[in-house]
Amino acid sequence: MLHRRISYAALLLAAVAFQIFFRYYLSTFTLVLVVLLPVLAVLLSLPGTLGTALTLSPGPAVPRGEQARFTLRLTQRAGFPLPPVKVTLYWTNQLTGESGRTLCTLRPQGGETDFTLQLPTPHCGRLVCRVEGARCCDLLGLFPLPLPGKPQAALLSLPLPTEALLPEELDSPRTGGVVLKPRPGGGPGEDYDLRDYRPGDPLRSVHWKLSSKKDELVVRETLEPRQAEVVLTYDHFGPPEALDQVFDRLCALSRLLLEKGRAHHIQWAAPASGAVEDRAVDSERALLACLEMAFSLPAPETGHSILDGALQVPGGVGQPLHFHITPADGKGGRT
After folding, report:
1. Are 231 and 267 in contact (CB under 8 A)?
2. Which end of the chain is more exposed for a tag (fewer CB within 10 A), N or C?
3. At what angle do helices 2-21 and 25-50 cross, to 10 degrees?
């Protein structure tokens, strides 16, 4: 662009000199033509610029370590000529904070032009790619013209498959993660718990013998065996390498639970505030949605551990089976 501006400046000086030394209509016409030429070039370039659309499409989610792909497409809706378009792409891993920029040049041919951006995925996370700026020059190459729209797209860099063993509390043939919980509506049963009377409790559930000894009403609350809620937790901070191991183990155990037909919850604490995030997982789709949520939050080197606060009991009933996921080498977390 600089050499074109220098060439135009030299042409303009020559036209001015021609006007000074040769005062004829031809010199005036030449000077006016040279002055208006950039304006005409911009006006002729505007329809092609405004009639151009940029779209950014993500490839499929990839396992960590493979190449992530984003496709940038330039589409010309108008039939006007368009010079080469320079696009600046900015990408970032929202989990680890890794980022970078790439400059590409699109040369419109036949109405559509594609550019494929390949990115390494050394760590888990949510890769977001967006167009920071797109511009082309006018037909003379003197002025940059911005293209409308700044699309963006995102894809997941997923944990690697790894082996996992079902915890003893869930794999035991005797218990299988079954706990006793109050039966809705009460009724007869072999197992029961004693508690204070609450308004609305039926009189048939009152333990009269014990109530007479305590001088206050005591109620039998019938219990029934139910599967305990399973809660998987992890700490959302640490080095990227440690978090990769945590997510590998977390996903392996979560998928193993889904194979056994056990819905569960995944929880973690916000590193800065300590607020607990809870996501219910009852299918592969729900697991991916949970990972997308977790991967979109930055993970600093240090932060609040979910073990430092009170565990959120799903539904607020009973004691859940809690499993805290740490890296395989035990660093960066607690069991």
Report:
1. yes
2. C
3. 150
> In whole angstroms, what is the distance from residue 287 CA to residue 60 CA?
16
Which one, of 78, 62, 80, lies nearest residue 70 by Cα? Answer: 62
The label of the residue with tokens 């009724």 reads 187
- 222's tokens: 């019938």
| Alpha-helix residue ranges (DSSP H) falling in the chain | 2-21, 25-50, 168-171, 208-214, 240-259, 284-295
- The strands making up 112-119's β-sheet, listed across from edge to edge, are 52-58, 68-76, 112-119
Report CA-CA distances (Å) from 208 to 190, 217, 255, 327. 18, 7, 49, 54
Chain Cα centroid distance, residue 135: 28
pTM of the model: 0.73
pLDDT tens series, the chain, 335 aa: 677 778 878 888 888 887 788 877 788 888 888 888 878 877 777 777 777 888 999 999 999 999 999 999 988 876 666 778 899 999 999 999 999 999 998 887 767 888 999 999 999 999 999 999 888 877 777 777 888 888 999 999 999 999 888 777 666 544 444 555 555 555 555 565 677 777 877 766 776 677 777 778 877 676 555 567 889 999 999 999 999 999 999 999 999 999 988 899 999 999 998 899 999 999 999 999 999 999 999 999 999 999 887 666 655 445 678 899 999 744 333 33
Instruction: Please choose, from the candidates 25, 137, 24, 121, the residue with its C-alpha nearest in 3D space to the C-alpha of residue 81.
Output: 137
Residue 55, classed as helix, strand or coil, is strand
Q: What are phi and psi of 87, to 5 degrees?
A: -125, 135
